Amino acid sequence: MLIFKAFSIVLWSETLMETECSCSHVENLWFSLTDVLLKMHSVGICGSDVHYWERGRIGDYVVKKPMVLGHEASGTVIKVGSSVTHLQPGDRVAIEPGAPRETDEFCKIGRYNLSPTIFFCATPPDDGNLCRYYKHNANFCYKLPDNVTFEEGALVEPLSVGIHACRRAGVTLGSRVFICGAGPIGLVSLLVSKAMGAAQVAVSDLSASRLEKAKEIGADFTVKIKNERPEEVAHMVEGLLGCMPEITVECTGAEACIQTGIYATRAGGTLVLVGVGPEMVTVPIVNAALREVDIKGVFRYCNTWPMAISMLASKRVNVQSLVTHRFPLEQALDAFETTRRGLGVKVMLKCDPSDQNP
Ligand SMILES: *[C@@H]1O[C@H](CO)[C@@H](O)[C@H](O)[C@H]1NC(C)=O
């Protein structure tokens, strides 16, 4: 049953792959005044896509019918709804996958990521955009300048997780930051911490090759974890930085890492929880309380695309080196398998048969 469920997701995306954009097909799509139709170009694979593919659920989000995967994406506008004024056919755009459906209280205070009714690509039951053509709310499509590639446009999504996490953590000029986990989210949190002015960033992971990548993109220190106790890891981090970090960005969701995050963070500092693991974990919460370590949650992001795009245009952040593999859309299964086996950092699917460039 599970295998069938997992397989049906890919079957569905393959069905869409075959779909050519005949005009009648496009006209038949439900298309609102505020939507744009996009010809998809690059879609990055996220751990959550692989998780839905393999397991059919993440926590309370359960895949109950075929769902198109993909939410780290960019493409070209080919048609605009009649009330869209800021985009026109031919514009290259980065897609923000979360588009609120209503102007609720969360939306009014600018924290639309918390809106319970938000549309979000590839979170059941909402379809993602790993396909040839896709329509989206135009207000959540952002024009890319000529000097930002489609792949950089797609990488605005993971980069946004790093921006939101670093904003919530209060990273600023001179911050000392400890990042747990050197997967894609740990790496973008590293890039953003540095861009926001962090003086020193230490990154931990179990994998030497992931830490190598962290070094390559700017980590000041790396901490290879074997089977040390959380207090020991915290001590190693303090030794490397020469002091305890004011900020810890936890990107694994593992119980031991959350424990480490509390012990590692300086009194009065902030721990942000970005990684998602089991709902119930045992952590030294009293230690955090007595040292006034603030623990903050992070859920996706909000209000990050314009800033991320200008950071990329000004070349203050370099995300291109995160892309380690590229596959045409027809080879989506190989791409998912590559991601599942943890072989690369970021795997990109190329959805436009006539343009497979970055
Ligand atoms: C990229 O393009 C933008 C907008 O056209 C421009 O402001 C910026 O200076 C350019 N950046 C570089 C590094 O060329």
From TrEMBL:
<dbReference type="GO" id="GO:0046370">
    <property type="term" value="P:fructose biosynthetic process"/>
</dbReference>
<dbReference type="GO" id="GO:0051160">
    <property type="term" value="P:xylitol catabolic process"/>
</dbReference>
<dbReference type="GO" id="GO:0008270">
    <property type="term" value="F:zinc ion binding"/>
</dbReference>
<keyword id="KW-0479">Metal-binding</keyword>
<dbReference type="GO" id="GO:0003939">
    <property type="term" value="F:L-iditol 2-dehydrogenase (NAD+) activity"/>
</dbReference>
<keyword id="KW-0969">Cilium</keyword>
<dbReference type="InterPro" id="IPR020843">
    <property type="entry name" value="ER"/>
</dbReference>
<keyword id="KW-0732">Signal</keyword>
<dbReference type="InterPro" id="IPR013154">
    <property type="entry name" value="ADH-like_N"/>
</dbReference>
<dbReference type="GO" id="GO:0006062">
    <property type="term" value="P:sorbitol catabolic process"/>
</dbReference>
<dbReference type="Pfam" id="PF08240">
    <property type="entry name" value="ADH_N"/>
</dbReference>
<dbReference type="Pfam" id="PF00107">
    <property type="entry name" value="ADH_zinc_N"/>
</dbReference>
<dbReference type="InterPro" id="IPR011032">
    <property type="entry name" value="GroES-like_sf"/>
</dbReference>
<keyword id="KW-0862">Zinc</keyword>
<feature type="signal peptide">
    <location>
        <begin position="1"/>
        <end position="21"/>
    </location>
</feature>
<comment type="similarity">
    <text>Belongs to the zinc-containing alcohol dehydrogenase family.</text>
</comment>
<dbReference type="InterPro" id="IPR013149">
    <property type="entry name" value="ADH-like_C"/>
</dbReference>
<dbReference type="GO" id="GO:0070062">
    <property type="term" value="C:extracellular exosome"/>
</dbReference>
<keyword id="KW-0282">Flagellum</keyword>
<dbReference type="InterPro" id="IPR045306">
    <property type="entry name" value="SDH-like"/>
</dbReference>
<keyword id="KW-0560">Oxidoreductase</keyword>
<dbReference type="GO" id="GO:0016020">
    <property type="term" value="C:membrane"/>
</dbReference>
<dbReference type="GO" id="GO:0051287">
    <property type="term" value="F:NAD binding"/>
</dbReference>
<dbReference type="GO" id="GO:0042802">
    <property type="term" value="F:identical protein binding"/>
</dbReference>
<dbReference type="GO" id="GO:0031514">
    <property type="term" value="C:motile cilium"/>
</dbReference>
<keyword id="KW-0520">NAD</keyword>
<dbReference type="InterPro" id="IPR002328">
    <property type="entry name" value="ADH_Zn_CS"/>
</dbReference>
<keyword id="KW-0966">Cell projection</keyword>
<feature type="domain" description="Enoyl reductase (ER)">
    <location>
        <begin position="24"/>
        <end position="349"/>
    </location>
</feature>
<dbReference type="InterPro" id="IPR036291">
    <property type="entry name" value="NAD(P)-bd_dom_sf"/>
</dbReference>
<protein>
    <recommendedName>
        <fullName>Sorbitol dehydrogenase</fullName>
    </recommendedName>
</protein>
